[in-house]
Amino acid sequence: MRDILTNGQFRVNGSLWLEGNGTRFFGPGPVELLQRIEETGSINQAAKKMGMSYKKAWEIVNRLNEIVGSPLVVTATGGEKGGGSSISDDAKQLIEWYLSLRERFRKFMEEESLKLTV
Amino acid sequence: MRDILTNGQFRVNGSLWLEGNGTRFFGPGPVELLQRIEETGSINQAAKKMGMSYKKAWEIVNRLNEIVGSPLVVTATGGEKGGGSSISDDAKQLIEWYLSLRERFRKFMEEESLKLTV
DNA sequence: AAGCGTTATGTACGCAAAGATATAACGTGA
DNA sequence: TCACGTTATATCTTTGCGTACATAACGCTT
Fold first, then answer.
1. Residues of B with CB under 8 A from a CB of A
2. With an 8 Å Cβ cutoff, are B112 and A104 in contact?
3. Distance (Å) from CA A44 to C1' D8?
4. What torsion do the CA atoms of A102, A107, A108, A112 make, to the nearest 10 degrees?
């Protein structure tokens, strides 16, 4: 390293996610989707804000609810605004946990990147 | 968390890589490829051992050499065994560095996973 | 000269993931 | 009763990535 990567153009980056029975199901994408659902009250609008198809968004929501026992997103069809979705308290906890984890991860990567420049 | 993910079926996992001028170029795949090239003395055989096409392997090698200034893989055409490839000392250093980084990362994830079970 | 296994490179094919589109059901409000 | 926006779901199309295949050059061996 001392010779190869010490010019500041290199850095360590990475990704973290949560696995349930071996398969990845909760990472940056689902986190943002949950946040947008909370904001907009709608899977449809959340998907649009992320430039994602409704189908993809729905599949993510569906898998989240399947793998985690308790429903993270609760949906309703029909009604005042045609329906809508909101996220559960469990989902809010999960988001908080992931964000703090990501912050620790960010520091980890920052430290490792710093080692490169020494 | 305390309520949602405390049954031991969930764990934190992730991936780490090295970026040069914004683009990912060095992660688990390239590391293994370099190791296999060192073992076999051939990009071709290394690719086969990894179930990867030669073309893909060559593209990885090519990008590695491009992004890192010094050549990590030195190749030769023709000759006794038709040619072959070997990895430079810089490449060996890079592999060592990545493996130690990955070990620290593994511990990080292990600790974070442990927090889930508490 | 001919053969071998390799590097190096272009092109064509397949497949899986993602997107686009269509449709039904729902419940409130006008 | 109809319109609306949403969830829910099936089907068709597209697109991007990797593989497969083909070919040339190379240099040592026989």
1. 1, 3-5, 9-21, 24, 68-70, 90, 93-94, 97, 101, 104-105, 108-109, 112
2. yes
3. 12
4. 140
Domain with A56, as residue range(s), is 28-117
Q: Which of A17, A97, A108 sits opposite B1 (nearest CB)?
A: A97
Structural domains in chain A (count) = 1
Whether pLDDT at A1 is above 80 = no
* Per-residue pLDDT tens digits for B34-79: 999 999 999 999 999 999 999 999 999 999 999 998 999 999 999 9
A35 in any annotated domain: yes
Instruction: Determine contact, residues A91/A73, Cβ cutoff 8 Å.
Output: yes
Cβ-Cβ contacts under 8 Å for B41 (sequence gap 6 or more) = B81, B84, B85, B86
